[in-house]
Design a protein that fits this description.
By secondary structure, this protein is mostly helical. The protein contains 9 helices and 3 strands. The protein starts with a helix and ends in a 16-residue tail after the last helix.
Length: 190
């Protein structure tokens, strides 16, 4: 016989990172339209969280169809009919599961710098240094701009992340990258 916990795990809704982030933002905002959520994502310091209407509007409808959000007509002044979304109890449970998923939270995930550095053997050492210096300057600019607008907790997290990332880049600039060995490919049999 199945236990209550195993049945709950099987019934648990698996969220993508974008879905989890959207539910988290909606929980913080309260009820909101797709437009308001898209603006919130567009204001994010992360390029990964795209606020495009092409991503957010279908996402909201999909979450509502899965009963993770409740949709209701919003009062609007313009001609367009807006829909307001609010998180449901099922949505809060799914959000909590997503938040507590240590396996996926510890994944390396999307990281544009790391993705590029996998291939840094394809550029010269001077180009690698140039890239790392430019990224370091952008992180320093980001630190001064974003942290001023964030709440204290978020600012602390971003500051810590940026400090660690800048320290790593400074270390990478101090030592040359060793070139990966060429892989010898065996010839196919005749």
């Amino acid at each position: 016989m199945q236990t209550s916990n195993s049945m709950k795990r099987r019934k648990a809704v698996t969220l993508t990172n974008l879905e989890g982030a959207a539910l988290g933002v909606l929980t913080r905002m309260g009820a909101a339209t797709s437009y308001a959520l898209a603006r919130e994502f567009a204001a994010s310091a992360s390029e990964f969280w795209s606020g495009s209407a092409g991503a957010i509007y279908p996402l909201m409808r999909r979450l509502a169809s899965r009963k993770l959000l409740r949709a209701s007509a919003a009062n609007t002044r313009g001609r367009r009919r807006a829909t307001t979304y609010a998180i449901t109890a099922t949505g809060r449970a799914a959000l909590r599961c997503w938040l507590m998923d240590a396996e996926r939270a510890s994944g390396l995930g999307f990281d544009p710098l790391r993705t590029r550095l996998i291939f840094d053997h394809l550029i010269t050492p001077a180009e690698r240094k140039q890239l790392l210096r430019q990224v370091l300057r952008r992180y320093e600019m980001l630190r001064s701009g974003v942290l001023d607008e964030a709440d204290a907790y978020t600012a602390g997290l971003l500051s810590s992340w940026l400090d660690t990332r800048c320290s790593w880049i400074e270390g990478a600039l101090a030592k040359p990258r060793s070139r990966p060995a060429r892989i010898a490919h065996a010839k196919a049999p005749p």
